[in-house]
């Protein structure tokens, strides 16, 4: 029985983790969970899994939740609460599916407590990959990818030697606006941007897919997870999202993982690794039904966010922290209707251009830069 601490329980990945756990009650148990403000969904999950510890976003939500709980559960809140859930002593695995760089300190706390990390929260690795990977190495803690592309790469690597990797190839759907030219992006709406062609996901990552910043973040995530330099990480547009990513070896052999779009597979694999379990209620992949698969080179002018991410990743230090913080603020503003779709890129670029990289940042420095950049982006939005 694997005991799980689940962060971001009410979100898209969280709810699919709940689904995986409910299908295999003999293998998994959720012993602690954290969410933000969705008390109705949170109560449903608490009722199903009966965790011993629950954390929510703030005191107000904690009070609201306590007022509606039928059984005694310890309720905590804020970043401290997230950290307490992440490092919950009874848990074996911490599934981090919270949204944004708020996931960093809980990840570090879970590593310090010796938990296996099943990581969906890519912003953690983008903002401070050097700290997370160094801590995991020191504590001999595995960081198992939940992000579908990274799970595909992890499965395709299957223990092969690092020195034999020629290239990691991350596939990208191209997002909601894949078939639009750059000029056609000026007046796109929030609703159109949220309409991902292949995946049903939370709002922020769906917008990231539309700008293709998601792929940029995933390039940096892959760099840290697999210890591969940026020159050996490529992005390939693949509109069907059937090939989830590929690994090319020095003998030109290319190994990939394929399947229909269903996050329960990478979530479950991170929980069962190195074993596998049956995945119920899923669609088997019959390639004859799919018929054709398409692949296309990425145009870095059309998808500027991918280039920003490569540049920020190569610059290193605090530059990826800036990329991530500016993007989180710009996407949040777009989702509130405060800026246009193309403003997201503009705001990120402005933040990157103004920043002087600090190399080898400590956690304190990362926190300070993250805060400063968010403030600067908010100010830039106010001045528009
Ligand atoms: N969705 C997907 O298919 C995939 C997602 N990912 C990554 O996984 C992460 C989660 O994505 P997704 O599930 O789509 O996101 P969602 O927006 O659907 O869910 C986010 C979760 O985080 C919680 N949350 C947000 N802010 C806070 C906070 N301050 N304190 C505590 N909890 C908080 C939310 O709570 P509440 O709603 O209750 O407020 C919710 O449970 C992201 O990093 C994303 O990039 C990676 C691959 C695929
Ligand atoms: C399911 C998942 O892992 C997402 O990150 C997904 O890959 C988004 O799709 P694109 O970024 O390729 O549009
Ligand atoms: Mn992904």
TrEMBL record:
Residues 143-226 form the 1-deoxy-D-xylulose 5-phosphate reductoisomerase C-terminal domain. NADPH binds at residues 10-13, 36, 38, 121, 123, 202. Its cofactor is Mg(2+); Mn(2+). Coiled coil: none annotated. Mn(2+) binds at residues 147, 149, 218. It comes from the Bacteria. It holds the Pfam family DXP_reductoisom. Its EC number is 1.1.1.267. Pathway: Isoprenoid biosynthesis; isopentenyl diphosphate biosynthesis via DXP pathway; isopentenyl diphosphate from 1-deoxy-D-xylulose 5-phosphate: step 1/6. Residues 4-129 form the 1-deoxy-D-xylulose 5-phosphate reductoisomerase N-terminal domain. It is an enzyme of class 1 (oxidoreductase). Residues 258-375 form the DXP reductoisomerase C-terminal domain. The keyword Coiled coil does not apply. GO terms for biological process: isopentenyl diphosphate biosynthetic process, methylerythritol 4-phosphate pathway involved in terpenoid biosynthetic process. Keywords: Isoprene biosynthesis, Magnesium, Manganese, Metal-binding, NADP, Oxidoreductase. It catalyses: 2-C-methyl-D-erythritol 4-phosphate + NADP(+) = 1-deoxy-D-xylulose 5-phosphate + NADPH + H(+). GO terms for molecular function: 1-deoxy-D-xylulose-5-phosphate reductoisomerase activity; manganese ion binding; NADPH binding. Signal peptide: none annotated. Catalyzes the NADPH-dependent rearrangement and reduction of 1-deoxy-D-xylulose-5-phosphate (DXP) to 2-C-methyl-D-erythritol 4-phosphate (MEP). Belongs to the DXR family. PANTHER family: 1-DEOXY-D-XYLULOSE 5-PHOSPHATE REDUCTOISOMERASE, 1-DEOXY-D-XYLULOSE 5-PHOSPHATE REDUCTOISOMERASE, CHLOROPLASTIC. This is 1-deoxy-D-xylulose 5-phosphate reductoisomerase. The gene is dxr2.
């Amino acid at each position: 029985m694997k005991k799980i601490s689940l962060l971001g329980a009410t979100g898209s990945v969280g709810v699919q983790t709940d689904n995986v756990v409910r299908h295999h009650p003999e293998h998994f148990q959720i012993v602690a969970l954290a969410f933000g403000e969705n008390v109705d969904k949170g109560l449903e999950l608490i009722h199903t899994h009966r965790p011993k510890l629950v954390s929510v976003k703030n005191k107000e939500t904690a009070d609201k939740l306590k007022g509606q709980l039928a059984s005694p559960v310890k309720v905590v809140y804020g970043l401290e609460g997230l950290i307490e859930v992440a490092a919950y002593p009874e848990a074996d695995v911490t599934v981090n599916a919270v949204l944004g760089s708020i996931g960093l300190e809980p990840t570090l706390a879970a590593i310090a407590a010796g938990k296996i990390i099943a990581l969906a929260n890519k912003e953690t690795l983008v903002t401070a990959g050097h700290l997370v990977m160094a801590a995991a190495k020191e504590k001999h803690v595995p960081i198992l990818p939940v992000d579908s592309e990274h799970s595909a790469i992890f499965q395709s690597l299957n223990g092969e030697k690092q020195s034999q990797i020629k290239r990691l190839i991350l596939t990208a759907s191209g997002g909601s606006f894949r078939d639009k030219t750059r000029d056609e992006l000026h007046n796109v709406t929030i609703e159109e941007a949220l309409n991902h062609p292949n995946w049903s996901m939370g709002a922020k990552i769906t917008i990231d897919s539309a700008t293709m910043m998601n792929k940029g973040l995933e390039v940096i995530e892959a760099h840290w997870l697999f210890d591969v330099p940026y020159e050996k990480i490529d992005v390939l547009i693949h509109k069907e999202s059937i090939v989830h990513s590929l690994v090319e070896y020095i003998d030109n052999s290319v190994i990939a993982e394929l399947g229909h779009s269903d996050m329960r597979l990478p979530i479950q694999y991170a929980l069962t690794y190195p074993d596998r379990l049956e995945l119920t209620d899923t669609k088997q992949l019959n390639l004859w039904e799919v018929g054709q698969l398409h692949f296309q080179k990425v145009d870095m002018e059309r998808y500027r966010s991918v280039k920003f991410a490569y540049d920020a990743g190569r610059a290193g230090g605090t530059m990826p922290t800036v990329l991530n913080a500016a993007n989180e603020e710009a996407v949040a503003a777009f989702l509130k209707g405060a800026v246009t779709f193309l403003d997201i890129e503009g705001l990120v670029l402005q933040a990157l251009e103004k920043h002087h990289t600090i190399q080898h940042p400590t956690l304190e420095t990362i926190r300070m830069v993250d805060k400063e950049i968010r403030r600067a982006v908010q100010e830039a939005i106010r001045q528009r």
